[in-house]
Amino acid sequence: MAALVNATVLSRWLIALLMTIAAALGTTSTAPAETRDKLTIGITQFPSTLNPIIDSMLVKSYILAMARRQISIFGHDWEAMCQLCTELATFDNGRAEAFDGVDKAGKPTGEKGVRTRFTLRDDAFWGDGVPVTTRDIVFTWKVGKHPETGVADYRSFQDILDIEVHDEKSFTVVNRKLDYRYYAMSGFQPLPAHLEGKAFAVPKDYRNRTLYETDPTNPGLYNGPYRITEVVPGSHIVLSRNEQWRGAAPTFNEIRVRTIEKTAALEANLLSGAIDYIAGEAGLSLDQALAFEKRHGDDYDVVYKPGLIYEHLDLMLDNPVLADLRVRRALIQAIDRQAISDQLFAGKQPVAHSGVHPLDWTHSEEIRKYDYAPDKARALLDDAGWSDIRNGVRHNVAGEKLAFEIMTTAGNRVRELVEQVLQDYWKAVGIEVRIRNQPARVLFGETISKRKFSGLAMFAWLSAPESLPRTTLHSDFIPSPANSWAGQNYTGFNDPEMDRLIDAIEIELDRDKRGGLWKRVQQIYADRLPAIPLYFRADGFILPKWLKGIRPTGHMYTTTNWVEEWRVE
Amino acid sequence: MIGFILTRAAQSAFVLLVMSFIIYVLLGLMPGDPIDLMIGADPNVTAADIARLKALQGLDQPLLDRYGAWLANALEGDFGYSRLFSKPVLEVLRPRLLNSLILMAVSLALALMVAIPAGIHAARRPGSWTDQAINLLCFAGVSVPPFWLALLLILLFAVSLGALPASGMQTIGDGGLLDRIRYMILPILTLSAAGIAGYTRHTRAAMIEVLREDYIRTARAKGLAERRVVWRHALRNALLPVVTIAALDFGSLFSGALITETMFSWLGMGKTIYDAVMGNDYNLALVGLLLATGVTLIANILADIAYAWLDPRISYRVERGS
Q1: Where do the structural domains in chain A lie, given as residue ranges?
Q2: What are the chain A neighbours of B267 within 8 Å (beta carbons)?
Q3: Whether A444 and B37 lie within 8 Å, measured CB to CB
Q4: Which CATH architecture has domain A36-52+212-306+539-568?
Q5: How many CA atoms lie within 13 A of A451 on its CB side?
Q6: Which residue of A has its CA nearest to B51?
Q7: What is the mean pLDDT of residues B34-59?
């Protein structure tokens, strides 16, 4: 009896203690700040590094865009615009000049190079008060082109032959190749030479010694409206107003970016007031945003923006069955992509008819479009010799079954759902499709990148405005052991006209002519169907009613590039 | 006893060495290295870039050579850099190990503090309504998926009542002791739930066995107070299997805490090791797994010592021949 009393008393005491602690501590619960001078944003990933030129990562770009400015970016209208430069360099304004390329021996290469002159804004300063100058531009180029620093966009830096410095603010970039993107320096992110010089003393150690890793709250690393003042890896980053920012003053004194990987917990944090806003760029998936809107749509503004993430099915063209264009067309005509978009995504994700986004100026409507037409699909399959239907599955005269494997990233709920819907559509016309999904690291690290899939692979491409599909559609970029599996033409698409068009677009400076070439690229893509376009993925931004001024772009330059326009109403 | 501890320590060091080799080779044999994954994400990467980057990261070397180089550096105290965090791995793991140990130690302590009295109570009245109620709760505790329980607790305490934070480790800009304790309550409750259920069942089963022993009957016949019989004579023997299971659980908590850590954005070892494996961060995954192994080995040594304390018949004195 004594033991019973003992145990019961102890348990009661523990429960009472826990409840008391919870109640006592609960008096200081997290509540949204009434003054609204702070904004807490929730995202689902933490950046692996804060160095702007090492590793390319969306969440890093998202955070850094509040604290750093680039030479030029793409604006809301999907056209290039200056951030740190005063104007873009065109032939019309005299800032660009073509020249004949020569090799190291001085012999003509037959290619045109280009010299572009840029001027940095007078009011651009690092957070420690040091002006952003041409010294920073040259230093960044040296870091970027060094083979041992391991930067993400090494090739772009290598393509710069020289940077001629005219004065503190003016410089000319000598580019090896004149191409259609010559007038901007998109992606060039100056590093503060006065701080980062020491870290670059041993180039192979730069990655680990950069102050963005060792001293990320150093104000001199940032030249945007905010500077990073606190970093807790894996947890949160705090940005405070940059006193040296001379542009429009941002509304919030402090912006806190919290990483909460589980989207269910992210939602709970929003509802509990621990975060104010879930970023569309790295927050809820579209189906989760739609579900959230249904439950809490009255309390929050949910904004959807289709972007450049292009979901599609790569078809393995080495498979003799899929090499038959009639079979590929039957596959796309047998599925109702509009119904999938309407039913699963409330119509927020527009059906894709090619890899070029409708908001891109190069997009063309004059291409073959495939509506849902199961009868046409059946006729095409009959015509291709798959007319013998046994147990609901088509066979050819040799008795072979019309069956494929479809693969995607295991655990991606939306893709797995779409996969099952597609499987049903294809079953209805006599095509057997088996699902064989793999974890992302296996799928992308081995199966797709080494072309080990035999049928269909569902995944997405993230591109940029007017992004040339060289690595995905040019025959030089079919991964193989010979090229160390470089390139992303996983389907093995090989079309001489497509190759010529891609080469021609790259050096065509006349926008109208280039538009014509782009139209033809999209026509070939739609006619030959190396992949089945599905839809352009949309982001869902969950905003509190009082937060205004966030304008999603749809492209890779995130809303945070305009953070000074965010306001409270 | 000291000789026993030194022997076990030497055995543990050997186990760690073997484990380092096995883990390194297994990680190396996983499909896709960091550069392979980068090829898929970067449309501009060329064959020359791939060769350059693989050489930079030493991935162009045979696996065994890479292990040899890693081991040589590790023996000098250099465990390399984390690819995901761009920091020395120990710098990344040290605070996370501490976070995990705090979470695990408190959860384990809470689980044992609740489970042992509950198990004793159930064992003393087998078949009673309180025993059945405890059993029912135990089955519920074992069966409830941690992520669901975590979500439920978040919805109740953070969203509905607003009494506790939904996730994280501290309020940004605060970080005082009370603030940190507030953030610990829900993860600890989640992590303890299954532990309480499991240990209660084990304690109950062991106590029922022990209470049937002759020496217990003898103790009662001698007129000892029931409290003394249960807490001094029965419990010490009944705790032996519970200690074994708790020691083994201490290691498995690293992996078991993964879901709890993810749900509550708690920066611990489980989540770090998972991210390192999935993100091809070989150094971080390897050292993280070795630390988890090391903690399990230490917990088992402590369990062996606890056996001797609980049951004086157990002796670790080295026999020098008869």
Answers
A1: 36-52+212-306+539-568, 69-200
A2: 232-235
A3: yes
A4: 3-Layer(aba) Sandwich (3.40)
A5: 21
A6: A484
A7: 72
